[in-house]
Design a protein that fits this description.
This protein is an alpha/beta fold. The chain is built from ten helices and 15 strands.
C-alpha cells in the first residue's frame, strides 16, 4: 500500500514538473520594488539591487508602465532616476523593474510607426509587427519563453539605424499565435517552422535576405531554423542574445533555483518527452556544430542565471570559424542592451557591417 502510494505521488510530481518544464511560464507580478516619490521626469525608488543597476530599464505597475534611465542620485535608502511615463496612470506604491515592459509596442516605447501584419503558417495565421526600413535585408526578431514581442524593443534601435526593416514575430502557443501540443512549448524543436514561415513572408514582401535575431528560447528557435530550414541559405548572418543553446543546462539551472532534486528533474524530462516527443540532445547546439553554415554573433551576460553563459561558450568554441562570442560582465538574462546600451549597439553594428548587413 505504501509503495503504491509512493509511486502515485511520484507520478503526480513528475507529471506536474514536466508541465513546468514545457511551460509556458506565468507572467511575473508587477510588484517587488517600492516607489517612494515621483515627479514628471524623475522617480525615487527605495534602495535595492535592481534600483541601483546602471542602464535603462522598464518599470511596470498594476495599470501602467514606463522607462527609467541611469541613476541620477543615490542615498543610503533611496535612488533617484530619470523617468518617462509610457502608458497608464502614474505609478504609486510598488512596481516591477525589468528589461522590458510586456505590453509595450514600437509606437509607444520607441516612438516609431509600425504595421500590424499577419503571416500564414501551417497552423494558421500569426500576428507580427513590421517596422519599415530601407534595406533589402529584413531583421526577424524572435522573443523568448515567458516573454512577449516587446522583449526585443530595447534592441530594435540598433537595427533600425542600419536601415533594416524589422519584423517582430509571435509563434505557436503565444497569446498572438495558434495553440499547438496542448499549449506546451517544444523549446524550438517545432517553433522554428513559424520563423521559417515569417522568413517566407519577408521574402514575399520585398526582402532579398533575412537576419534572424533570437533571445533566450528565441535563440533556440533561430538555431533550429539555421540547421533545418532551406531558407537559412537566405540568411547572411544571425544574432543570438542570451540564447537557449543547451536545454539540458537550462533545465538544470531552473531546477536548482526551484530546489527540485536532480532525480525528479530527470524523470520530469522523460515525462516531457513522452508528452511531446522532444529529444533533449537535439537541443544541445554544440553537439550539432557541423550543421551550421551561417555566421553568428552570440551575446551573453556573465550573470545570467537562466541560460548559463558556459553553454554559450561551449557552442561558440564548437564553431570558432562561424561564431563570434561577446560577453557582458554585469548583465543578467537578456540584459546586455539594458546594462551597456552604447557598447551593445557598437558591437552589433560593427559585426553586422563586417558581414555585409545594413546600409
Amino acid at each position: 500500500m505504501l509503495l503504491a502510494l509512493a509511486l502515485l505521488v511520484l507520478a503526480i510530481a513528475s507529471w506536474y514538473y514536466s508541465g513546468q518544464i514545457l511551460g509556458p511560464d506565468q507572467r511575473p507580478e508587477r510588484r517587488g520594488q517600492t516607489i517612494l516619490a515621483r515627479r514628471d521626469s524623475t522617480i525615487t525608488l527605495a534602495t535595492s539591487t535592481k534600483a541601483l543597476r546602471p542602464g535603462r530599464w522598464a518599470i511596470e505597475w498594476a495599470d501602467g508602465y514606463g522607462e527609467i534611465g541611469p541613476p541620477r542620485r543615490t542615498e543610503p535608502d533611496r535612488v533617484v532616476r530619470p523617468f518617462r511615463l509610457v502608458s497608464g496612470s502614474p505609478p504609486d506604491g510598488t512596481a516591477r523593474l525589468g528589461g522590458f515592459a510586456f505590453d509595450a509596442d514600437p509606437r509607444n516605447w520607441l516612438g516609431v510607426a509600425f504595421e500590424p501584419v499577419e503571416y500564414r503558417t501551417r497552423l494558421g495565421a500569426i500576428s507580427a509587427w513590421l517596422v519599415p526600413g530601407t534595406d533589402s535585408t529584413w531583421a526577424i526578431f524572435v522573443h523568448g519563453r515567458a516573454a512577449s514581442r516587446a522583449e526585443v524593443l530595447r534592441m530594435l534601435p540598433v537595427y533600425r539605424a542600419l536601415g533594416l526593416p524589422c519584423l517582430v514575430i509571435c509563434y505557436r502557443n503565444d497569446p498572438c499565435g495558434p495553440r499547438a501540443m496542448g499549449g506546451h512549448y517544444q523549446m524550438g524543436a517545432t517553433e522554428w517552422h513559424d520563423l521559417e514561415d515569417a522568413a517566407q513572408f519577408a521574402l514575399d514582401h520585398g526582402a532579398r535576405r533575412v537576419l534572424p535575431v533570437g533571445c533566450s528560447m528565441g535563440g533556440s528557435i533561430v538555431c533550429e531554423f539555421l540547421r533545418h530550414s532551406t531558407l537559412a541559405a537566405r540568411a547572411p548572418a544571425a544574432v543570438l542574445d542570451a540564447p537557449a543553446v543547451d536545454w539540458n543546462a537550462m533545465i538544470a539551472v531552473g531546477a536548482a533555483k526551484r530546489h527540485v532534486p536532480p532525480w525528479l528533474t530527470a524523470i520530469g524530462k522523460e515525462v516531457a518527452t513522452a508528452r511531446t516527443g522532444i529529444r533533449w540532445s537535439e537541443l544541445v547546439q554544440a553537439q550539432h556544430a557541423a550543421e551550421f553554415h551561417t555566421p553568428i554573433l552570440l551575446l551573453h551576460g556573465a550573470r545570467d542565471d537562466t541560460a548559463p553563459i558556459e553553454a554559450s561558450r561551449r557552442f561558440a568554441a564548437s564553431r570558432p570559424d562561424l561564431i563570434t562570442f561577446v560577453a557582458f560582465p554585469e548583465a543578467g538574462h537578456v540584459e546586455a542592451s539594458n546594462y551597456e546600451e552604447a557598447r551593445y549597439a557598437q558591437v552589433v553594428t560593427d559585426w553586422l557591417r563586417a558581414h555585409g548587413v545594413g546600409s
